[in-house]
Amino acid sequence: LIDFDEEETAEMMEAMGMKESGLDALIRGAFTLLQLESYFTAGVQEVRAWTIKKGSTAPEAAGVIHTDFAKKFIKGEVCSVDDFVKYNGWAGVKENGALRLEGKEAIIHDGDVCMWKIGG
C-alpha cells in the first residue's frame, strides 16, 4: 500500500475491508496498551499534539511542554478538538460558551485543546 497513491490506497483498503492502515492500527494499539493520549495546543502560527499518560492533570500535561509550565501553572483554557474545529478557533469557542477554565486538579482528556496560563 505504501507504493500506491492516495486514491489507490483507499480503493485497496476498501476492497480488503480495512478501515485504517496497519501503521495507524499499530500506533493506536500502542497508545492503548501504554495508556497514552494526545492533547493539542493551538496558536496563531502552530498547532501541535502532545503525548500524555491517561489521567494526567492539567499541570502534568502542561509540564510535557516545559517543566516550568508545571511548576508555575495557574490555570488552563480548555475545549474539545471538535468544538475548536466547529467554532473555528479560540475566538469562536469563547463566543459559543464552549471554553472551560480548568485548575490544577483537572484531568486532561484525549483530544482536548489547551492554552496554559502560567505565573512569572
Question: What do you see in this structure?
Answer:
The strands form two sheets. This protein has a three-stranded antiparallel sheet with strand order 4-3-5. Strands 1-2 form a two-stranded antiparallel ribbon. Strand 1 and strand 2 form a beta hairpin. The protein has six helices and five strands, in the order H-H-E-E-H-H-E-H-H-E-E. The model has no long low-confidence stretch (mean pLDDT 94). By secondary structure, the protein is an alpha+beta fold. The protein has two domains: 1-34, no CATH class; 37-118, Ubiquitin-like (UB roll), CATH 3.10.20.
Summarize this structure as a short list of keywords or feature phrases.
single chain, 2 domains, alpha+beta, three-stranded antiparallel beta sheet, 120 residues, globular
Strand content: 25-35%
Number of domains: 2
Q: Give the N-terminus to C-terminus distance in angstroms.
A: 51 Å
Q: In sequence order, what are the helices and strands, one letter per element?
A: HHEEHHEHHEE
Per CATH, the class of the largest domain reads Alpha Beta
Please report the total strand number as a whole number.
5
By CATH, the superfamily of the largest domain comes out as Beta-grasp domain
**Cα Rg:** 18 Å
Strand order of the largest sheet: 4-3-5
Task: Provide the residue-averaged pLDDT.
Answer: 94
Tell me the structural class. alpha+beta
Instruction: Please summarize the sheet with the most strands.
Output: 3 strands, antiparallel
Roughly how much helix do the residues carry, as a percent range?
25-40%
Q: Write the CATH architecture name of the largest domain.
A: Roll
Total helical elements: 6
Contiguous runs where pLDDT drops below 50 for at least 5 residues: none
Shape: globular
Question: Within the CATH hierarchy, at the fold level, what is the topology of the largest domain?
Answer: Ubiquitin-like (UB roll)
